[in-house]
Amino acid sequence: MSNQIAASRNSYRRLTASAMFAAMIAVTTAYLFHIPVGANGGYLHFGDAFIYLAASLLPLPYACAAAAVGGGIADLVSGAGAWMLPTMLIKPLAALLFTSRSHKLACPRNTAALIYGGFVTVAGYYLAEVVLTGGNWLAPAVSVWANVIQAAGSAAVYLVMAVAIDRFHVKPLLKLG
């Protein structure tokens, strides 16, 4: 019976952390460093850093849910509703290669996953814009630079947060992984 209670507590802890990460992702994406770019309704932000952080602290299904919900809400509240569905597909994919099993956030796997996450973001939004523009493959190329800046900025912000969390040994205290 005590094993069931412990498992239930872990599930509630992870679910609560997922909801909190979804909120942080939404607020950071929609309101902090939110810079509109182009005429397509897109915007530049560093909210992906919190997606990467969630993926480094939470088991994969919880991290993917936080990424999809947080990113989708950000698009909805910031007036970019047309991007909500693509975001809810792209953001969880960007989180897939991160691991929460390492004792450090800034481990080699998570550092390499930043490159994968950036590639998924750039390619995913390019393809989404091709679809949203009715199959035009040339026009979306203009916004690729903004997605590259967003991915690189989010990676840098994540690394700063990860190193700080690792330095102060916060991850073991959270008991999420």
Top keywords for this entry?
177 residues; mainly alpha; Arp2/3 complex 21 kDa subunit ARPC3
Short summary of the structure?
Helices cover 68% and strands 2% of the residues. It has one domain: Arp2/3 complex 21 kDa subunit ARPC3, CATH 1.10.1760.20.
Topology, please?
Elements: H1 2-30, E1 35-36, E2 43-44, H2 48-57, H3 60-77, H4 84-94, H5 108-132, H6 144-167, H7 171-174
Antiparallel strand pairs: 1-2
Overview of this protein structure:
It is a single chain. With 177 residues, the chain is an all-alpha fold. The longest helix has 29 residues, at 2-30. Helix 2 runs antiparallel to helix 3 (60-77). It has one domain (2-174): Orthogonal Bundle (Arp2/3 complex 21 kDa subunit ARPC3). It has helices spanning 2-30, 48-57, 60-77, 84-94, 108-132, 144-167, 171-174; strands at residues 35-36, 43-44. The chain has a two-stranded antiparallel sheet. The model has no long low-confidence stretch (mean pLDDT 92). It has 7 helices and 2 strands, in the order H-E-E-H-H-H-H-H-H. The chain is globular and about 55 Å long. The two termini are 22 Å apart. A hairpin with a 6-residue loop joins strand 1 and strand 2 (43-44).
